[in-house]
Records
---
Amino acid sequence: MDNLLSYIDPLLDGAWVTLQLTLYSTVLGGVVAFMAGIGKLSENRATRWLSICFIEFFRGTSLLVQLFWLYFALPILGQAIGVDLRMPPLLAGTIALGLNIGAYGAEVVRGAIQAVPDNQYEAAKALDFTPKQTMWRIVLPQAIPEMMPSFGNLAIQNLKDTALVSLISLGDMTFRAEQLRNYTQDSTTIYTLLLFMYFGMALVLSAIMKILERYASRWRTRKI
Amino acid sequence: MLFGIEWDTANNWVFAWSILPILLKGLVVTIQATLVGFLVALILGLVLAALKGARLRIISWPAYFITEFIRDTPLLVQLFFLYYVLPEYGIILPAFMTGALALGLQYSAYTSEVYRAGLESIPHGQTEASRVLDFTPLHTFMFIILPQAIPRIIPALGNYLVSIMKDVPVLSVIAILEILNVARIIGDRTFNYLIPLSMVGIIYLLLTLLASAGIRYLDKRLPKEGIPLK
Amino acid sequence: MNDAIIKFENVTKKFGDVTILDKLNFEVAKNEKVTIIGPSGSGKSTILRILMTLEGIDDGIIHVAGKPLWHEYKNDQTVPASEHHLRQMRKEMSMVFQQFNLFPHMTVRRNITEAPIHVHKLSQKEANDLADEYLDLVGLSEHADKFPSQLSGGQQQRVAIARALATRPNIMLFDEPTSALDPELVGEVLSVIQRLAEKHDLTMLLVTHEMQFARQISDRICFIDKGNIVEEGPPEEVFTAPKEERTQAFLKTYMQS
């Protein structure tokens, strides 16, 4: 038992890093998801193509490969063109995770927007709203409740993916656990504890997403 | 030199060309791990789905909990757990099997959901009609339900196959020589990470596009109503 | 008609290979109440949708309030209308849809004030006053803060009418406004439209299957079939003494039900 308590401190240090990383990458992912999702539906061919390429690329390659590339390969590219592109592990992790989850999120955004009935666009046109007003005031508010369940799943996936940054020496929960294991050889306790810590965080994250989902769906009341 | 193949660092293109065979050897391991992991996921998923469907709550509830637990914890941590903890209890597996087991375990949580959703999407009328015609439950399942369920679950399972392939690089932490690990080793030794890692990225992209096209083709070939039985 | 507020000249509209409107010539005078009747697929709704700029035309020219709708005059040439021109023209008209098309995520009040504020640049107070005025007109003042999903179909359609009126159009278009309603809710919507027809200086173009109602409120009935006007005239003429055979056949099937 004494061992258990002594593990908690370093794991909590790691948990803090995990939380930060999850938060930053989810926010980045959200922004990217909307940009690419809406971009894929754009009338502008270039925007559409850019969005499609981005989505296919980041969904089609392994996250760990992307992470490693950003952390190990990009600096070398920078050297070749004379720019210092080295970045701290937290930044590399945030960018890799954010872009990756953003690509998956983009498909969710696109699907939800396309699920908004055509007649909403017609009503907006009849009232003479501009396309931009139509998207931001009429379509997106109706699309967002559709996105929330999938966003919930993606948020959990993102949390799980943060464990990979331990492989580029970022001091998250998994990294700390590995350190502890190297030191104490007490694999069972440490990894069981680690698994439950992730599980706990996932449950909390799930609950938060459920609350957000309910908030965004306020207007979807049942007919009297 | 790796796998007995030398590389040539004369210039970038020659280098890329010379390491391609090495990377492809890593790719073979990647594909092997993907297929074995997928197989494990299919089987374990079936077990989980069966347990979750059990009428005794004492069986179904733990199954639900285990599924949720697997889904909400990282593959990497599950891998470490299996790799370090199993030997302490006398179970010693070769690294490759541990890796495939971890992949299969993580994705069994998803495949069990696919099975459940697929079965549920079959209209109840089918089972009712079978009962009226006095088919045995086994016959109903094998020849009525299953052929109709399979086309519905193929796309989802196919997507998970591709996902497993993208998760294989995680296995590099237990020294499995899949393609990313190979690229990293080359990078470690030549200080040129850019070329190997970029090539891995491109190879993955091609594989994913190929696999996705394959799944779409399979989906198109299978009639929506079910596997035809003459 | 010299003071024609709507003028279709040889308008042709095709959907793929199917010709919906075939060199249609059609006029509506200012403040006239016209009802268009006809079988399914005759092009009735299409006329309204073209006016509301939801569909374009393949040939011909349309004038609304003296200005071309789907065209512009630039340097003495007639060119297809730019989006900017269309936006200007849309301000002349408002449309009430068969499926109401209210914005489900906005309250009744907001549904009505959104366009006045963001399209016509009214202040929040001016828009609210407008909303109150029109909610009163359609008899739904107590429901201002409800969401569409909390209202019945008839109530939703009345809100849609208020929303369309709030943009102060010169022309109101009604595309089968009661066709999607349960029978017991049709009356409340029709009485609102009737009030509009009686009290307001408004040009109204109505597509409906409610023949009795059309007879009551219309100045003119147009019977359209296969993309062209077969017969038009005052309601008493068209309904009681139709001249054309096709009109007679159509009215027979309707009067039987």
---
Amino acid sequence: MPASGRAAEQRTFVPYPFSPTRHEATLPHLVAGRDSRRHPVVVIGGGPVGLAAAIGLARHGVRVLLLEADDSVCSGSRAICISRRSLEIADRLGALEGFLKIGLPWTGGRSFYRHQEVLRFSMPADQNQKLPPMINLAQYSIEQILLNRAQELPDQIEIRWQARVTGIDVDRDTVSLAVLTPLGDYRLEADWVIAADGGRSFIREALGLRLEGTTYEGRYVIVDIRKPNRTPTERFAYFDPPCNPGSTVLVHQQPEGVWRIDYQLRDGEDSDEAIAPENVIPRVADLLEMMGETGPWNPIWIGIYKANALTLPRYRHERVLFAGDAAHLVPIFGVRGANSGIDDADNLAWKLAYVIKGVAQDSLLDSYSSERVAAARENLRYGMKSTEFMAPPSFAFDLMRKAVLELAVNHPEVRSLINPRQTSAVTYSESPLKGALSAREITGSAIPGAALPECPLTLVAGGERRRLHVTDLLTLGAEPGFTVLCFGDLPSICVAVTDLGTRMRNDRVAINAIAITRAFSGTGNEPYGFDHTDRLYPLFGARAGDVVLIRPDGHILGRWRDPSAIDLVTGIRRVLGNASS
Amino acid sequence: MTPIDLDESYSLLCQTMTRLGRSEAERFLARFAVMALALMPDRGVADRVIAAAADIDRAEATRQDDAANARNACAGLE
């Protein structure tokens, strides 16, 4: 019976405001049923993670073959929130514009217990930031934006649609894949494989690997509806709302008048019945009525979701590297799914590129596994906490949640327990790479292992001044590599860093160094940045003579005060596994 | 207590009560309350905490008002 007991309304289903392009299957040049070309790396899966990995590798000059089983980008309701960290990555991939053009930025939301507002939360959106803390957009848009970018790099990225991997053999030097297409089957050989083939990963199954962790019983119905957007864009959570008692409901707006509604099923409700339109539509109607949304609307899509908090214990298996949902399944609450997958791709792309180009030893890839498994465990921990509040897994969590929500009406000190714990950039605090370098007397937030903190600065180059942000410095070099910030009184990089650049050129590693002064220091020959807001130096806890070394993925590798060139060179060579060279 | 510490302690309390089971929940919460009282910094805090926890009538009144509003709202739609 519908939640309100009233007769089911007739509502016509309408399509998403997006028409995916269908892509033909293709066959490579075959010799005896085998792709005639051996591939340095094959990415399996054309979702956000696979596409981000392919673009990241291409950006480092590596040729990539991407195999996608379907004939288009995805459909239905999947990831809907892209975090600031993911936007920073998109910026480096050359895809930011598409995200900002389409996505709906938002900074906070509200939670209600029955009729009363019990929490108003906001995510960090201080004046130092270049990008919004979160934007909403549908996964088909995320994939289309990344696909558009990948297609701008045809010399580096080949995409084969309708190419389903049905077999894998891994030996010491080679990964061999069996590929099924409507045009016929073939085999191909690759040096490396990135398995980004989603939550039901064939590669994971084929290699006999098992995810470890917790599966929750609580189920959520996911409904997308078409309805004009309202401003501002906020995230709404309703606990025990009057017209759907005992349930928890989440509401997110997406671009072009798509609203995503998630509501919790009560114990004992049958899943198949629960997603029948005649049961879903009245509940959505009642919710919209309660929200004061009286305008017309139509359903688009209905699905059901069960929270998982699972990860592989290792993401590297010889020559196969797992990323995204193939590696870990994170509860949706806190929006860590696609965002953590994009972070996987970003961490992996530069490391694998360096290994493929012979610049680093393959031991560098072990750090991909250890850093991203640690990140997944942190994501899972927060995701589980959110899930335990959104869909209480036992009588105890349920009883305590009722107490929190009742008390939150009049006692602000307990409201933080309702906070949705949204994703934020992970710090690789136990990274084996970080341990390779020493850092002394560090204050401020720019600690080794952390993602580069954001702050405006002015770039002086060619006699011109340009306002930009610290994260923009990661893309200023002619080719991607390590970025070095030299804090000092003079608008020129220090001798040690100049020497580092020369030596690393011999190692074929790009070093993009820039001096950062406190104040405008004239228009010299070299580009430099200055701290026009007086916030950059304090944020980094920097003094003249400080050197900050940043990895290609924007994480801080190390910091020094007045280092020698040997300190810096040895540090980078150790990271790349070339310490004795 | 920072929000992060509160969050961690809250999870531990829920997990512990889950492990002990529904039949021991009341006893566990009573023992927890006694220990929490004993560790409070002063009587003033203890009195305020007891009063907040006891304000069940207000919470119940809100619940009943909501239920009545919901019934009226839904009845109006039929």
